[in-house]
Specification:
The protein is an alpha+beta fold and 113 residues long. It contains 2 helices and 4 strands. A hairpin with a 2-residue loop joins strand 2 and strand 3.
Amino acid sequence: MNPLDGKTKKQAQKELYRIINPLIQGVFCDECWRPIMFIYKALSDREIDYGIEDSKYYQNEGNMTGCPNGKRWDYYVSWEKDGKEVKIPMRITAFFCGSVADPMDAYDMTVTF
């Protein structure tokens, strides 16, 4: 059973943040997006319904390097409340923070709803 069932949007956001935030703390130096895999597992293990809508690298306006500034994953999370489906967007963003020579060598992450 989805643990978000019956919750308000605010309550669900708080619960999702409690689950996800510890998984994205710190600076990461892997090439396979390990925190994203941990998030998938954490949500699936708790039977939380989610889907990915988009995933892409982004470049900030004015960035003349040609190198992306990070990567975004856009999700939706859904649950039942009062017999109706509730769905909210969730964005996880990786901000590249590696060396000048290789900015994509390290990243930190945030989650927003």
